[in-house]
Amino acid sequence: MKLAIVGATGLVGQELLKVLSERQFAFDELLLVASAKNVGKVISFQGRNYTIIGMEEAVKRAPDIAIFSAGGSTSLEWAPRFAEMGTVVIDNSSAWRMDPTKKLVVPEVNGHVLRIDDRIIANPNCSTIQMVMALAPLHVKYKVKRVVVSTYQSVTGTGKDAVQQLMNERSGTEGPKVYPHPIDFNALPHIDVFLDNGYTKEEMKMVNETRKIMGDDTIGVTATTVRVPTIGGHSEAVNVEFEKEFDLSEVRQILENTPGVVVQDDVKNNVYPMPINSHGRDEVFVGRLRRDESQPRTLNMWIVADNLRKGAATNAVQIAEFMRERSLVV
Residue 249 — pLDDT band, cuts 50, 70, 90? Predict the structure, then answer.
Protein backbone atom coordinates (compact mmCIF):
# COMPACT_ATOMS: atom_id res chain seq x y z
CA MET A 1 0.00 0.00 0.00
CA LYS A 2 1.49 3.28 -1.18
CA LEU A 3 -0.36 6.22 0.35
CA ALA A 4 -0.04 9.91 -0.55
CA ILE A 5 -1.27 12.90 1.44
CA VAL A 6 -1.59 15.90 -0.86
CA GLY A 7 -1.62 19.16 1.10
CA ALA A 8 0.27 17.58 3.99
CA THR A 9 1.33 20.90 5.54
CA GLY A 10 -2.18 22.38 5.92
CA LEU A 11 -4.58 22.10 8.87
CA VAL A 12 -6.48 19.17 7.36
CA GLY A 13 -3.27 17.55 6.12
CA GLN A 14 -1.84 17.60 9.62
CA GLU A 15 -5.10 16.21 10.99
CA LEU A 16 -5.00 13.44 8.38
CA LEU A 17 -1.66 12.27 9.76
CA LYS A 18 -3.09 12.19 13.30
CA VAL A 19 -6.12 10.19 12.14
CA LEU A 20 -3.99 7.72 10.16
CA SER A 21 -1.89 7.11 13.24
CA GLU A 22 -4.83 6.80 15.64
CA ARG A 23 -6.72 4.42 13.36
CA GLN A 24 -3.54 2.43 12.63
CA PHE A 25 -4.02 2.68 8.89
CA ALA A 26 -1.36 0.36 7.51
CA PHE A 27 0.82 1.39 4.58
CA ASP A 28 4.15 0.33 3.14
CA GLU A 29 5.13 3.73 1.78
CA LEU A 30 3.95 7.23 2.66
CA LEU A 31 4.29 10.19 0.32
CA LEU A 32 3.80 13.64 1.81
CA VAL A 33 3.00 16.11 -0.95
CA ALA A 34 2.61 19.89 -0.93
CA SER A 35 3.05 23.02 -3.02
CA ALA A 36 6.39 24.04 -4.49
CA LYS A 37 7.17 26.44 -1.62
CA ASN A 38 7.06 23.54 0.86
CA VAL A 39 9.00 20.96 -1.17
CA GLY A 40 12.08 19.83 0.72
CA LYS A 41 10.65 20.53 4.17
CA VAL A 42 10.75 17.66 6.63
CA ILE A 43 7.78 16.36 8.64
CA SER A 44 8.19 13.85 11.45
CA PHE A 45 5.53 11.14 11.60
CA GLN A 46 5.47 7.96 13.69
CA GLY A 47 9.14 8.25 14.52
CA ARG A 48 10.29 8.81 10.95
CA ASN A 49 11.22 11.91 8.99
CA TYR A 50 9.51 12.44 5.63
CA THR A 51 10.64 14.97 3.06
CA ILE A 52 7.87 16.86 1.29
CA ILE A 53 7.75 16.15 -2.44
CA GLY A 54 6.05 17.99 -5.28
CA MET A 55 3.07 16.98 -7.39
CA GLU A 56 5.01 15.78 -10.45
CA GLU A 57 7.13 13.47 -8.34
CA ALA A 58 4.07 12.14 -6.50
CA VAL A 59 2.24 11.32 -9.75
CA LYS A 60 5.28 9.47 -11.10
CA ARG A 61 5.38 7.31 -7.99
CA ALA A 62 1.76 6.20 -8.62
CA PRO A 63 0.35 5.80 -5.10
CA ASP A 64 -2.50 3.35 -4.54
CA ILE A 65 -4.48 6.00 -2.63
CA ALA A 66 -4.03 9.77 -2.59
CA ILE A 67 -5.98 11.85 -0.09
CA PHE A 68 -6.21 15.43 -1.33
CA SER A 69 -6.66 18.49 0.85
CA ALA A 70 -5.07 21.18 -1.25
CA GLY A 71 -7.94 23.27 -2.63
CA GLY A 72 -10.27 23.02 -5.59
CA SER A 73 -7.98 24.30 -8.34
CA THR A 74 -5.25 21.86 -7.35
CA SER A 75 -7.72 18.99 -7.32
CA LEU A 76 -9.15 19.87 -10.72
CA GLU A 77 -5.67 19.95 -12.23
CA TRP A 78 -4.01 17.03 -10.50
CA ALA A 79 -6.66 14.49 -9.41
CA PRO A 80 -7.23 13.28 -13.02
CA ARG A 81 -3.48 12.84 -13.50
CA PHE A 82 -3.25 10.64 -10.39
CA ALA A 83 -6.36 8.74 -11.49
CA GLU A 84 -4.76 8.02 -14.87
CA MET A 85 -1.97 6.25 -12.98
CA GLY A 86 -4.54 4.01 -11.28
CA THR A 87 -4.56 5.95 -8.01
CA VAL A 88 -7.78 6.20 -5.99
CA VAL A 89 -8.11 9.91 -5.21
CA ILE A 90 -10.16 10.95 -2.18
CA ASP A 91 -10.65 14.68 -2.55
CA ASN A 92 -11.54 17.02 0.30
CA SER A 93 -12.24 20.09 -1.86
CA SER A 94 -15.51 21.09 -3.50
CA ALA A 95 -14.08 20.45 -6.99
CA TRP A 96 -15.79 17.13 -7.74
CA ARG A 97 -18.67 16.99 -5.27
CA MET A 98 -21.48 17.82 -7.66
CA ASP A 99 -19.93 16.14 -10.71
CA PRO A 100 -22.57 13.56 -11.70
CA THR A 101 -19.82 11.09 -12.64
CA LYS A 102 -18.22 11.21 -9.16
CA LYS A 103 -19.43 9.71 -5.87
CA LEU A 104 -19.95 11.99 -2.85
CA VAL A 105 -19.53 9.77 0.17
CA VAL A 106 -20.10 9.55 3.90
CA PRO A 107 -19.32 5.84 4.47
CA GLU A 108 -21.93 5.30 7.20
CA VAL A 109 -24.62 6.84 4.99
CA ASN A 110 -23.90 5.86 1.38
CA GLY A 111 -20.66 3.87 1.25
CA HIS A 112 -22.58 1.23 -0.69
CA VAL A 113 -22.40 3.39 -3.84
CA LEU A 114 -18.62 2.91 -4.16
CA ARG A 115 -17.30 0.64 -6.92
CA ILE A 116 -13.90 -0.73 -7.90
CA ASP A 117 -13.68 1.61 -10.90
CA ASP A 118 -14.15 4.78 -8.81
CA ARG A 119 -10.90 6.69 -9.17
CA ILE A 120 -11.92 10.14 -7.90
CA ILE A 121 -14.16 10.17 -4.82
CA ALA A 122 -15.42 13.39 -3.28
CA ASN A 123 -15.34 14.06 0.45
CA PRO A 124 -18.40 16.21 1.33
CA ASN A 125 -18.48 19.63 2.93
CA CYS A 126 -17.80 19.49 6.67
CA SER A 127 -21.17 20.98 7.65
CA THR A 128 -23.03 18.62 5.33
CA ILE A 129 -21.28 15.53 6.72
CA GLN A 130 -22.33 16.09 10.31
CA MET A 131 -25.90 16.96 9.34
CA VAL A 132 -26.50 13.91 7.14
CA MET A 133 -25.03 11.64 9.81
CA ALA A 134 -28.03 12.56 11.97
CA LEU A 135 -30.58 12.95 9.18
CA ALA A 136 -29.93 9.71 7.29
CA PRO A 137 -31.22 7.18 9.86
CA LEU A 138 -34.26 9.37 10.52
CA HIS A 139 -34.92 9.66 6.78
CA VAL A 140 -35.13 5.87 6.56
CA LYS A 141 -37.80 5.78 9.25
CA TYR A 142 -39.81 8.96 8.73
CA LYS A 143 -38.72 10.38 5.32
CA VAL A 144 -37.29 13.88 5.52
CA LYS A 145 -39.45 16.45 3.74
CA ARG A 146 -37.69 19.75 4.51
CA VAL A 147 -34.64 20.93 6.45
CA VAL A 148 -33.91 24.43 7.75
CA VAL A 149 -30.35 24.70 9.06
CA SER A 150 -28.34 27.53 10.59
CA THR A 151 -24.65 26.87 11.20
CA TYR A 152 -22.10 28.28 13.63
CA GLN A 153 -18.79 27.37 12.02
CA SER A 154 -15.30 27.39 13.48
CA VAL A 155 -12.52 29.55 12.06
CA THR A 156 -10.54 26.34 11.54
CA GLY A 157 -12.78 25.71 8.54
CA THR A 158 -11.05 28.60 6.78
CA GLY A 159 -7.52 27.43 7.59
CA LYS A 160 -4.37 28.39 9.48
CA ASP A 161 -4.49 32.07 8.49
CA ALA A 162 -8.02 32.44 9.89
CA VAL A 163 -6.98 30.94 13.22
CA GLN A 164 -4.06 33.36 13.26
CA GLN A 165 -6.37 36.30 12.54
CA LEU A 166 -8.55 35.33 15.50
CA MET A 167 -5.54 34.97 17.81
CA ASN A 168 -4.07 38.26 16.60
CA GLU A 169 -7.33 40.09 17.28
CA ARG A 170 -7.59 38.50 20.70
CA SER A 171 -4.06 39.61 21.62
CA GLY A 172 -4.26 43.02 19.94
CA THR A 173 -1.59 42.12 17.38
CA GLU A 174 -1.67 43.47 13.85
CA GLY A 175 -1.54 40.89 11.08
CA PRO A 176 -3.00 39.69 7.78
CA LYS A 177 -6.80 39.45 7.49
CA VAL A 178 -8.64 36.63 5.74
CA TYR A 179 -12.12 37.85 6.67
CA PRO A 180 -13.67 41.16 5.52
CA HIS A 181 -14.48 42.05 9.15
CA PRO A 182 -13.11 41.23 12.61
CA ILE A 183 -13.97 37.70 13.74
CA ASP A 184 -13.27 37.94 17.48
CA PHE A 185 -16.38 39.00 19.44
CA ASN A 186 -18.28 38.74 16.16
CA ALA A 187 -20.35 36.46 13.92
CA LEU A 188 -20.04 36.66 10.13
CA PRO A 189 -23.04 35.42 8.06
CA HIS A 190 -20.66 35.04 5.15
CA ILE A 191 -18.90 31.74 4.36
CA ASP A 192 -17.42 31.43 0.86
CA VAL A 193 -18.62 33.78 -1.89
CA PHE A 194 -22.11 35.19 -2.40
CA LEU A 195 -24.04 33.88 -5.40
CA ASP A 196 -26.62 35.58 -7.62
CA ASN A 197 -29.49 34.10 -5.59
CA GLY A 198 -28.28 35.85 -2.41
CA TYR A 199 -27.04 32.65 -0.79
CA THR A 200 -23.37 31.86 -0.23
CA LYS A 201 -21.61 29.00 -1.95
CA GLU A 202 -21.34 27.25 1.43
CA GLU A 203 -25.11 27.44 1.90
CA MET A 204 -25.79 25.98 -1.53
CA LYS A 205 -23.25 23.21 -0.88
CA MET A 206 -25.38 22.08 2.06
CA VAL A 207 -28.50 22.12 -0.12
CA ASN A 208 -27.08 20.19 -3.07
CA GLU A 209 -24.76 17.83 -1.22
CA THR A 210 -27.44 16.71 1.25
CA ARG A 211 -29.70 15.62 -1.60
CA LYS A 212 -26.88 13.82 -3.44
CA ILE A 213 -25.58 11.93 -0.40
CA MET A 214 -29.04 10.90 0.74
CA GLY A 215 -30.07 10.03 -2.81
CA ASP A 216 -33.27 12.06 -2.72
CA ASP A 217 -33.72 15.24 -4.76
CA THR A 218 -37.17 15.85 -3.28
CA ILE A 219 -35.74 16.92 0.10
CA GLY A 220 -36.13 20.66 0.60
CA VAL A 221 -33.09 22.27 2.23
CA THR A 222 -32.43 25.90 3.10
CA ALA A 223 -29.33 27.06 4.95
CA THR A 224 -27.76 30.08 6.62
CA THR A 225 -24.07 29.58 7.37
CA VAL A 226 -22.24 31.73 9.92
CA ARG A 227 -18.56 31.95 10.91
CA VAL A 228 -18.00 32.30 14.68
CA PRO A 229 -14.84 32.67 16.80
CA THR A 230 -14.63 29.06 18.00
CA ILE A 231 -11.90 26.47 17.48
CA GLY A 232 -13.26 23.02 18.39
CA GLY A 233 -15.82 22.39 15.68
CA HIS A 234 -18.96 23.39 13.82
CA SER A 235 -22.42 23.63 15.39
CA GLU A 236 -25.79 23.47 13.64
CA ALA A 237 -29.36 24.24 14.61
CA VAL A 238 -31.42 21.88 12.44
CA ASN A 239 -35.17 22.00 11.98
CA VAL A 240 -36.42 18.96 10.07
CA GLU A 241 -39.94 18.28 8.84
CA PHE A 242 -40.83 14.64 8.15
CA GLU A 243 -43.44 13.07 5.89
CA LYS A 244 -44.43 10.68 8.68
CA GLU A 245 -45.24 11.29 12.33
CA PHE A 246 -42.45 10.50 14.79
CA ASP A 247 -42.13 9.57 18.43
CA LEU A 248 -39.46 11.60 20.24
CA SER A 249 -38.26 8.68 22.34
CA GLU A 250 -37.95 6.57 19.18
CA VAL A 251 -35.96 9.36 17.48
CA ARG A 252 -33.57 9.35 20.43
CA GLN A 253 -33.25 5.57 20.28
CA ILE A 254 -32.56 5.60 16.53
CA LEU A 255 -29.80 8.18 16.95
CA GLU A 256 -28.31 6.37 19.93
CA ASN A 257 -28.04 3.23 17.79
CA THR A 258 -26.46 5.02 14.82
CA PRO A 259 -22.72 4.28 14.44
CA GLY A 260 -20.67 7.47 14.66
CA VAL A 261 -23.43 9.44 16.42
CA VAL A 262 -23.43 10.25 20.14
CA VAL A 263 -26.57 11.63 21.78
CA GLN A 264 -25.92 14.26 24.48
CA ASP A 265 -29.37 15.37 25.55
CA ASP A 266 -29.84 15.85 29.28
CA VAL A 267 -30.85 19.49 29.61
CA LYS A 268 -31.73 19.13 33.31
CA ASN A 269 -28.02 18.63 33.92
CA ASN A 270 -26.88 21.08 31.23
CA VAL A 271 -25.69 18.30 28.96
CA TYR A 272 -25.74 19.15 25.24
CA PRO A 273 -23.19 19.16 22.43
CA MET A 274 -20.58 21.94 22.38
CA PRO A 275 -17.57 22.46 20.12
CA ILE A 276 -15.25 22.69 23.10
CA ASN A 277 -16.07 19.04 23.86
CA SER A 278 -16.07 17.79 20.27
CA HIS A 279 -12.52 19.00 19.60
CA GLY A 280 -10.31 16.09 18.56
CA ARG A 281 -13.24 13.66 18.48
CA ASP A 282 -14.51 11.68 15.48
CA GLU A 283 -18.13 11.36 16.54
CA VAL A 284 -21.07 13.56 15.58
CA PHE A 285 -22.84 14.82 18.71
CA VAL A 286 -26.60 15.42 18.72
CA GLY A 287 -28.75 17.00 21.43
CA ARG A 288 -31.52 19.50 22.25
CA LEU A 289 -33.98 17.05 20.70
CA ARG A 290 -37.47 18.54 20.83
CA ARG A 291 -40.63 18.93 18.82
CA ASP A 292 -41.24 22.09 16.85
CA GLU A 293 -44.47 23.26 18.47
CA SER A 294 -45.31 25.56 15.55
CA GLN A 295 -46.06 22.82 13.03
CA PRO A 296 -46.66 19.05 12.89
CA ARG A 297 -44.10 16.26 12.26
CA THR A 298 -41.16 18.62 12.81
CA LEU A 299 -38.08 18.08 14.96
CA ASN A 300 -35.46 20.49 16.28
CA MET A 301 -31.96 19.27 17.06
CA TRP A 302 -28.48 20.65 17.71
CA ILE A 303 -25.57 18.94 15.92
CA VAL A 304 -21.87 19.46 16.68
CA ALA A 305 -18.73 17.86 15.23
CA ASP A 306 -15.04 18.64 14.86
CA ASN A 307 -14.87 19.95 11.30
CA LEU A 308 -11.23 18.92 10.87
CA ARG A 309 -12.01 15.35 11.98
CA LYS A 310 -15.30 13.79 10.86
CA GLY A 311 -15.90 16.91 8.78
CA ALA A 312 -12.72 16.33 6.78
CA ALA A 313 -9.79 14.08 7.75
CA THR A 314 -11.61 11.23 9.48
CA ASN A 315 -14.25 10.90 6.78
CA ALA A 316 -11.54 10.77 4.09
CA VAL A 317 -9.63 8.06 5.94
CA GLN A 318 -12.86 6.13 6.49
CA ILE A 319 -13.47 6.20 2.72
CA ALA A 320 -9.96 4.78 2.21
CA GLU A 321 -10.64 2.10 4.82
CA PHE A 322 -13.98 1.26 3.18
CA MET A 323 -12.38 0.88 -0.26
CA ARG A 324 -9.62 -1.28 1.15
CA GLU A 325 -11.79 -3.53 3.31
CA ARG A 326 -14.01 -4.30 0.33
CA SER A 327 -11.08 -4.85 -2.04
CA LEU A 328 -12.06 -1.84 -4.14
CA VAL A 329 -8.45 -0.65 -4.32
CA VAL A 330 -6.52 -2.52 -7.01
Answer: very high
